[in-house]
Amino acid sequence: MQIETLRDVLHWTRKFHTQLQECLARCSEVNEDERAKLLLVYLSDHENKLIRVLDGFEKTASVNALNTWCYEYVDKYPVQRHQNCTANFTDMSSAEISTEISNLHEQVIGLYRHILDRANSESSRELLSGLLNIETHTAMQATQSANRLSDL
Predict the structure, then answer these.
(1) For the chain, how long is the longest CA-to-CA vector?
(2) Would you give per-residue pLDDT tens digits along the chain (152 residues)?
(3) What is the CA radius of gyration of the chain?
(4) CA-wise closest residue to 78 among 107, 35, 36, 119
(5) Is the dihedral of CA 68, 65, 113, 10 positive or negative?
(6) Cβ neighbours around 55 below 10 Å, total
(7) What's the half-sphere exposure (Cβ side, CA atoms, 13 Å) at 109?
(8) Would you tell me how many other CB atoms lie within 10 Å of the CB of residue 21?
(9) Looking at the whole model, is its pTM more than 0.70?
(10) CB–CB of 55/61 below 8 Å?
(11) What does the DSSP assignment read for the chain?
(12) How far apart are CA 6 and CA 12, in angstroms?
């Protein structure tokens, strides 16, 4: 996917989370560790909610912000999409799953920070700040939930 505008970044992020959600759901059916299975189901549901939030961002964001060019930023900070369930969550423990999910969310957070640091318009900075806050909050929730599960 060619990323040129903030709208493209939003679409890329939605696709990233959709693929991750599908992967987590598939792996939850196969993983034999009960804690890991519970975590995978929870994380899949959590990703699904995040996808709906991202849809809302696109519907409510300023058209000027969405049309802001950012291709030169992405060229300098290439993103790696979670494709075709490359992380084998079926064989991971809940701790390993938590670490992998944190790493994946940090990749998106890093992209948002990188673009935000270079954004010029107030509308694009506002959009990116909101996206960054959602991603950061989601990553923290996932970590906290995994920690609570391990306490059981």
Answers:
(1) 49
(2) 577 889 999 998 999 999 999 999 999 999 999 999 999 999 999 999 999 999 998 899 889 989 988 766 556 555 555 555 666 799 899 889 989 999 889 989 998 998 899 888 899 999 999 999 999 998 898 888 778 877 76
(3) 16
(4) 107
(5) negative
(6) 12
(7) 14
(8) 20
(9) yes
(10) no
(11) ----BHHHHHHHHHHHHHHHHHHHHHHHTT---HHHHHHHHHHHHHHHHHHHHHHHHHHHS-HHHHT-B-HHHHHHS------TT-S-GGG--HHHHHHHHHHHHHHHHHHHHHHHHH--SHHHHHHHHHHHHHHHHHHHHHHHHHHHHHH-
(12) 10
Looking at the DSSP assignment, which residues form a beta bridge with residue 5?
69
Q: Which domains does the chain have, with CATH numbers?
A: 6-151 (1.20.1260.10)
Tokens for 118, please give them. Answer: 């270079």
Long-range contacts of 39-45 (CB under 8 A, 24+ apart): 39/94, 39/97, 39/98, 39/145, 39/146, 39/149, 40/89, 40/97, 42/145, 42/149, 43/97, 43/101, 43/142, 43/145
User: Which residues are bridge partners to 38 per DSSP?
Assistant: none
